[in-house]
């Protein structure tokens, strides 16, 4: 890298728009969406999709709710042409979906594009040519007038070819390609020249797609460009401003959102951001960003895993585990403090009744996307008591008291350090069983018991194996637990109960009971016991014996 990059790279010039309005606006409705997965996304693949994969992806796009789908570049070859014409001929396109094809501004390519759409009920033909200075100078060697004439000539062919096929409802889209690096006044000049040919109206508007073909500036600059264009284009009510951002600087989504604030009506992109180089705008992220602000995105992403699986299959590209909303780890917390906050958030959410989502570290309810809560908290060496307690509660229904959470967390931490890996629910439950639940080598093993007496004067009589020898032990107390502790005093440790809690696990006849005790020994140590049984009284007895075994 250069010590002084200014000797090689020039900063992008700001847009002269001192009275810009977009910074004070908010997005209150979803844009028109266009998926270009089958065109821009497909052309960016190492191995382009075959017909089976294209069809499967098309069906997913329809299922998600996309109403405008760019299905290919029909003049690129027979594969593209046959797929597009096949969609039309087989009746696979729903009546409320418009397919779109892309073409360069050349007569033969435009004619081929129209031929591929023969028989379509409605279709969009997307014409483009590059207009920026670098392309005029380096690629074409043309003047501004010559580049504008390319657009005009292409628009005339669009008009004439559509007139030959009156049974199709035609829509036209024009892209001043490389818009974001072109002079704004020239982009407007070329677009207005295309309007003069196609004569759009408010009822039949033209789509002007304003691409950040290569992202070269911060997203606020792109928003300024969009607002400037919207202010200066003639007959604004007869055109739809569409955005097509790329992610070269990592801000494709931000540029699209600020562009919408700047007045754009439509957003083009790909599900999960596939596309040339660093990718297109990720429509899933933009849509769910709207959703988390209370705006209906008009896309159905309620089964996000089905979207991910289909995209991965069709593109043969992985979806990064940190991909917003869709990655495997985006709703997962390993950090102890994060886990504790999430656990408390879920508890508070259950106690509230206003319906609004407010859980720390989770900007969206994973259930809205078809994800379960089990994977929200996962345990490794960075995890704390809240995360461990969450896993136990979600997996086994046990609501551990706070101090028991802290005690068990130490055991899980030791296991994580020993294994140096993430711990699954089975690992955690195995350690819980080994720490608190009955084991064959326990000193005290309950065989049977009975309780008699009146309130305040209870007698516990139990058959208990002590060091492998079955005995009858008994003790009196003001309740069952104190009776058990008194009985243990004959052969076991003296325990002082500090805390006791219990709860049901599940509902109905098959419900189980869980009991927890926290005790202090004669030498001041704190020990915990856990008991599980179908009977709550028996669970309490097992909890005391569990504590005694660890005393």
TrEMBL record:
Binding-site residues, Mg(2+): 40, 244, 246, 280
Leading EC class: transferase
Domain of life: Bacteria
Subunit structure: Homodimer.
TM region(s), chain numbering: none
Family: Belongs to the alpha-IPM synthase/homocitrate synthase family. LeuA type 2 subfamily.
Cofactor: Mg(2+)
Catalytic activity: 3-methyl-2-oxobutanoate + acetyl-CoA + H2O = (2S)-2-isopropylmalate + CoA + H(+)
Protein name: 2-isopropylmalate synthase
PANTHER family documented for this protein: 2-ISOPROPYLMALATE SYNTHASE, PTHR46911
Main location: cytoplasm
Function: Catalyzes the condensation of the acetyl group of acetyl-CoA with 3-methyl-2-oxobutanoate (2-ketoisovalerate) to form 3-carboxy-3-hydroxy-4-methylpentanoate (2-isopropylmalate).
Pathway: Amino-acid biosynthesis; L-leucine biosynthesis; L-leucine from 3-methyl-2-oxobutanoate: step 1/4
């Amino acid at each position: 890298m250069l010590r002084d990059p200014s000797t090689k790279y020039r900063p992008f010039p700001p847009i002269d728009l001192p009275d810009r309005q977009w910074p004070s606006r908010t997005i209150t409705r979803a844009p028109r969406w266009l998926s270009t997965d089958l065109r821009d996304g497909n052309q960016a693949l190492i191995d382009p999709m075959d017909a089976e994969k294209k069809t499967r992806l098309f069906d997913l796009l329809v299922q998600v709710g996309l109403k405008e789908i760019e299905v290919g570049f029909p003049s690129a070859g027979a594969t593209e042409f046959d797929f597009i014409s096949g969609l039309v001929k087989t009746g696979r396109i729903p009546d409320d979906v418009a397919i779109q094809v892309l073409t360069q501004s050349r007569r033969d390519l435009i004619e081929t594009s129209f031929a591929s759409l023969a028989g379509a009920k409605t279709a969009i033909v997307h014409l483009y040519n590059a207009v920026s200075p670098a392309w005029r100078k380096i690629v074409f060697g043309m003047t501004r007038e010559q580049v504008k004439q390319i657009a005009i000539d292409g628009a005339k062919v669009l008009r004439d070819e559509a007139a030959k096929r009156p049974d199709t409802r035609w829509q036209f889209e024009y892209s001043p390609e490389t818009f974001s690096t072109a002079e704004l006044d020239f982009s407007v000049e070329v677009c207005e020249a295309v309007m003069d040919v196609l004569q759009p109206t408010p009822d039949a508007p033209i789509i002007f797609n304003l691409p950040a073909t290569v992202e070269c500036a911060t997203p606020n600059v792109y928003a300024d460009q969009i607002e400037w264009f919207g202010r200066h284009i003639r007959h604004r009510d007869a055109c739809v401003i569409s955005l097509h951002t790329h992610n070269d600087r990592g801000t494709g989504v931000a540029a699209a959102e600020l562009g919408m604030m700047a007045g754009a009506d439509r957003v083009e992109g790909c599900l999960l951001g596939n596309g040339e180089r660093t990718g297109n705008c990720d429509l899933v992220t933009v849509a769910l960003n709207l959703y988390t602000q209370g705006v209906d995105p008009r896309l159905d992403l309620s089964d996000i895993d089905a979207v991910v699986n289909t995209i991965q299959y069709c593109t043969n590209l992985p979806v990064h585990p940190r991909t917003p909303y869709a990655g495997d780890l985006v709703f997962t917390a390993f950090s102890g403090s994060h886990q504790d906050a999430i656990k408390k958030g879920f508890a508070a959410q259950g106690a509230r009744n206003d319906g609004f989502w407010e859980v720390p570290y989770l900007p969206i309810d994973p259930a809205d996307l078809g994800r379960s809560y089990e994977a929200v908290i996962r345990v490794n060496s960075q995890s704390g008591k809240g995360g461990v307690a969450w896993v136990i509660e979600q997996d086994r229904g046990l609501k551990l008291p706070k101090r028991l959470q802290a005690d068990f967390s130490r055991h899980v931490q030791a296991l994580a350090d020993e294994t140096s890996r993430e711990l699954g629910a089975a690992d955690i439950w195995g350690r819980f069983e080994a720490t608190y639940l009955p084991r064959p080598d326990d000193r005290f093993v309950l065989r049977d018991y009975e309780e008699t007496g009146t309130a305040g004067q209870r007698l516990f009589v139990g058959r208990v194996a002590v060091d492998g020898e079955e005995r009858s032990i008994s003790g009196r107390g003001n309740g069952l637990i104190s009776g058990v502790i008194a009985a243990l005093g004959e052969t076991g440790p003296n325990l002082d109960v500090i805390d006791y809690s219990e709860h049901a696990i599940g509902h109905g006849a098959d419900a189980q009971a869980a009991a927890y005790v926290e005790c202090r020994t004669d030498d001041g140590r704190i020990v915990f016991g856990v008991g599980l049984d179908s009977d709550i009284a028996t669970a309490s007895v097992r909890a005391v014996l569990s504590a005694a075994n660890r005393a």
